Amino acid sequence: MTQDSRSISISPLNSLHIQQAKDSTFRLGNHFLKKHKQMQAGRETRLYIAQLNDTKIVGAFWMEIQPTYCWIRNVFVESCHRHLGIGTKLLRYAIKENKNMSYYCFNTPSLHPFYQSIGFDEVLADELPNSLKTRLLRYQANGKNLIAMRFTTSLS
Description:
Blueprint (H helix, E strand, L loop, with lengths): L4 E5 L5 E6 L3 H12 L10 E7 L3 E10 L3 E9 L8 H12 L4 E6 L4 H7 L1 E4 L6 H12 L5 E5 L5
Parallel strand pairs: 5-6
Antiparallel strand pairs: 1-2, 2-3, 3-4, 4-5, 6-8, 7-8
Protein name: N-acetyltransferase
Pfam family, one: Acetyltransf_7
GO molecular function: acyltransferase activity, transferring groups other than amino-acyl groups
């Protein structure tokens, strides 16, 4: 296990390994997202993956890093592995790794409780950095029902 990864036991038979994807794991993480019809990460972003038994990718997300904030994108966990805390562990890992940043995400109302349970609170468009405000308003004008949220809790 490398310094930038953690293993977490989620059942007696399986261990969950979370890491920032690099090189071959970056390609595998993007393949996982593409397979599940999710937007893939660009090379200028950070991609995080969750693997069972250090082999099978079961969750991933990526974020854009700006000088003063991170924009969390495309958190996805395979349906058969949902409600096990994998998405929460992925996000907490990345937030701990990138301390002293503000974190934002856009999500649908159905995901509001998930993000709120991690420490995100809903924010108005006017409370977003200008580039995110412009994107949110454009998405909403195009009919997407999205909520902007900001991470407001500290993780120890």
